[in-house]
Amino acid sequence: MSSVMDPTLERQFKGHRDAVSSLDISPNRKQIASGSVDACVMIWSTRPQMRAYRFVGHKDAVTCVQFSPSGHLVASASRDKTVRLWVPSVKGESTVFRAHTGTVRSVSFSSDGQTLLTSSDDKSIKVWTVHRQKFLFSLNQHINWVRCARFSPDGRLIVSASDDKTVKLWDKTSRECIHSFCEHGGYVNHADFHPSGTCIAAACTDNTVKVWDIRTHKLLQHYPVHSATVNSLSFHPSGNYLITASSDSTLKILDLLEGRLLYTLHGHQGPASCVSFSRTGDSFASGGADEQVMLWRTNFDSVDYSEVLEQKGARDEKASVHRSCSQPSDTQESGAVGVSSQNSSTAPVSPGDGHPDSVPAALASTLQHIVGQLDVLTQTVAILEQRLTLTEDKLKECMEMQRRSVSEN
After folding, report:
1. What is the C-alpha to C-alpha distance for residues 66 and 57, in angstroms, rounded to an integer?
2. Positions of the chain with pLDDT lower than 70, given as ranges
3. Distance in angstroms (rounded) separating the CA atoms of residues 171 and 79
4. Pairing of strands 199-204, 188-193
5. Any idea what the Cα angle at residue 258 is, between residues 352 and 329, rounded to 5°?
6. Which of 179, 252, 325, 355 has a Cα at 20 to 30 A from 99?
7. If DSSP codes are grouped into helix, strand and coil, which group holds residue 362?
8. Which residue, among 111, 162, 174, has the nearest Cα to 137 in the 3D structure?
9. What are the pLDDT digits (tens) for 363-408?
10. Measured distance CA(399)–CA(300) in Å, rounded
11. How many CA atoms lie less than 13 Å away from 76 in the CB half-sphere?
């Protein structure tokens, strides 16, 4: 029987000169990216004695950072209305594009790494290609700042959170708003999909976290566990836990299966602004107004979460084969969740079943490496193109100045 342990603080990273606004752990867990009001992006190494990289380029506060699925790119959004794509290496090269007419509040990759999603104070959500940052389309039904937007795990849906006190669910193909969730009593700071893709959770200035079933649009769980604004949240990859960060300076871990508060963590001096689980769930990182990034070990029990996720994938693969051999009725749905409660208590949420494709491990690893290298090559080409454009513009300017000088003489 495994022994239960509390989460433990592993490391603290200091280097930002203002509040940490966002962070993300790389897929291989070797790096943490963080953005700050100091307008810098920092790349921290989780390995001892390794130096951090400070990326300077944004002209105002960085509001959001995220690694690409391959880990070879980092996207950052800023109050300067731009998005940058960085190669997280010592050179810190980046491409930049003006994404919105107001502060860009969030940026995130689709699960295949090919598409970017941004949201802004201009009340819009925009979708872009990662390659050449080509604009595809926008979603425009919010009537106030859009704080956050995220793709569903399968990339077919989008969830957005806004200062208009709503959480909206969108169909990426039809570009229509499927449903608006209006139960929050304040501005909605953050929203994201459950790993199963069947539920969403949102964090709000009314000090609460709410979880909905996106198939029935019913409120499943309501957590009034914080004493101040909830700024950020992150699902554990197993789907069994949710972690939150609040201006009451605490992090709280919620057990979604039992519908209860599991842990309260005190680490930051002042508001905790952001939190994120690693892709394997064995660790999580948090950032706050105290300018610190903290790396924590999950330690819920002695289970190796990477093995659990692999076993879950194997089970899902078998279930997928079984389902493909039978014709389910229209009322059957995969990824069961708990029923909503009629009172203030919470209802359990089960993690749900995924549908991963069956790919040999060696081939998957090789493909992941190739995709990663293509990311880097694509980004390098984009950087060179931007530099060439700048050089051409300067050359034209010099020629024009020379022509004017000749004509004046």
Report:
1. 16
2. 1-4, 301-400, 403-409
3. 27
4. antiparallel
5. 30
6. 179
7. helix
8. 174
9. 655 666 566 666 666 666 666 656 565 566 666 666 667 766 666 6
10. 66
11. 36
Identify the helix (H) or strand (E) that includes residue 305: helix 305-324
Model pLDDT, residue 356 = 38
CB 165 within 8 A of CB 186: yes
Return the sign of the alpha-carbon dihedral for residues 255, 260, 266, 268. positive
Smallest CA-to-CA distance from 297 within 286, 307, 308 is with 286
Between CA 166 and CA 185 the distance in angstroms is: 9
Quote the pLDDT of residue 49.
Answer: 82
CB-CB contact of 268 with 13 (8 Å): no
Whether residue 236 contacts residue 281, with contact meaning beta carbons closer than 8 Å, is answered with yes
Beta bridge partner(s), residue 65? 76
Burial of 403 (0-12, 13-18, 19+ CB in 10 A): exposed
**250-255 β-sheet, strand order:** 230-235, 241-246, 250-255, 260-266
pLDDT at 5: 79
Q: What is the pLDDT of residue 300?
A: 76
The residue written with tokens 């003489």 in the block is 409
CA dihedral 285, 286, 292, 295 (to 10 degrees): -30
pLDDT at residue 293, rounded to an integer: 98
Q: Domain-by-domain residue ranges, the chain? A: 8-299, 364-408
In the numeric block, the tokens 């004695």 are attached to: 49
Number of H helices, E strands in the chain: 2, 28
Two structure tokens written together for 339: 């029923």
Say how far apart CA 200 and CA 205 lie, in whole Å: 17
**Rounded Cα gap, residues 339 and 209, in angstroms:** 17
